[in-house]
Amino acid sequence: MKFPFVKAKTASSLRQKLDDTRQKLEAAQKELGTLKKEVHAARKRLGKNKGVGPMIDEGRAFMSIRFLRGKGLEIGALHRPTPTADGVVTKYYDYLSAEDNKARCPELAAEGNELVHVDYVGDGEKLELIPDDSLDHLIANHMLEHCQDVIGTLQVFMSKLKLGGHLFITLPDKRYTFDFNRPITPYEHLVKDHQEGPAQSLYDHYLDVHRHNAIKGVGSNTMTKELLTREEVHALPHLDIHFHVWTQFDMLEMFMRLKADFGFPWEFEGLLRNGHEVIMVLKKEEVEVWDRAEPGSRPGQ
Predict the structure, then answer these.
(1) Which residues contact 161 (CB under 8 A, 6 or more apart)?
(2) Is 265 part of a structural domain of the chain?
C-alpha cells in the first residue's frame, strides 16, 4: 500500500528545512560582512601608532568587535588602545597620567605614537574609582601577568562588570616571549599569594626575573643588571615585571580552576590564539539550569 501524502509531507518538510538553512546562511554571511567592514574601520582608527604587528591589532579588533558593546573601561592602554565597534564607548584607566606616561616612555613619543588620554588615574588592580556593577566591558591587555594577586584582581574586575558584561583579557604565551625559559607559575602559587598576601613572594618573583632575563629594558623597565636586596625591592614604589608566566594550556586551566574553586561567575565567549598572545573573552553570567527537554519546567513558569 502506498501513501503518496507521506512523500509530499516529507518533501515539504525538507524544503522548509532547506529554506531555513538558506536564511541562516544568508544572515551569517551578512554578519560576517559587517564584521569585516568594522575590522577594516578599526584598522584605520589605529592610525600611525606602532604595535608589535598588524596581525596582533587585527586579532584584538576582530574579537572586540564581535563581543564588546556599551560603555566600558580599558586598563593600561598607553599607545595601543583596543579598537572597538562604532558606538562602543571605552574610557581609560592607568596608574600614571598621559603626561607622566610620556615621561616614563619617551621612546613611544619618539616613534611618533600618540598615548591615550587617561580618564582615571588609580590602581588598576583595585579600580577604586569605578562603581561596582557599572561596566558593559572591561579590557586588560598584557596586564594580569603584572599583578601580584591575580585572583584578587580578577575578583575586582568581575565586581565592576554588570551582569552580562564582558571581560576582555589578553595574556602573553611565555613560549614566544623573553619569558620563554622561566618556569610556569603553578596554580597553587596563585592561591597562596591570594590567601597569604603577595608580599611574601615578591622578592622570589624579582629573583626569578633577574635570573632569567636580567638585562635592562628586557622584561621590565625597573629591572637592572645589579641585584637588589630584599629590602631595596620592597622599598620600590612600583615593580614593573611579569610576576607570573603561562602557556596557553596553563591559562585555560587557571581560568577553569578559578571558576570551580572560587565561584567566578564567568562563561567563555571567545578564545583566540593571536600571535604571541592569547585573547580570552569571558561573560559575567549566571547560567540558569533547568530541564529544557520538559516544556514548562523552567523555574518561575
Answers:
(1) 133, 135, 136, 137, 138, 167, 284
(2) yes
pLDDT of residue 118: 96
Vertex 198 angle, CA 243 and 251, to 5°: 45
Cα 209 to Cα 205: distance, rounded to the nearest angstrom = 6
* Residue-wise pLDDT tens digits, 239-275: 889 999 999 999 999 999 999 999 999 999 999 999 9
Report, as an integer, the average pLDDT of 83-107: 92
Residue 9 lies in a domain: no
| Number of domain units in the chain | 1
Q: Is residue 126 in a domain?
A: yes
Smallest CA-to-CA distance from 170 within 52, 44, 31, 259 is with 52
Which domain does 69 fall in, by range?
A: 46-284
Q: Read off the CATH number of the domain in which 126 is found.
A: 3.40.50.150
DSSP assignments along 25-40, one per residue: HHHHHHHHHHHHHHHH
Q: What is the pTM of this model?
A: 0.79
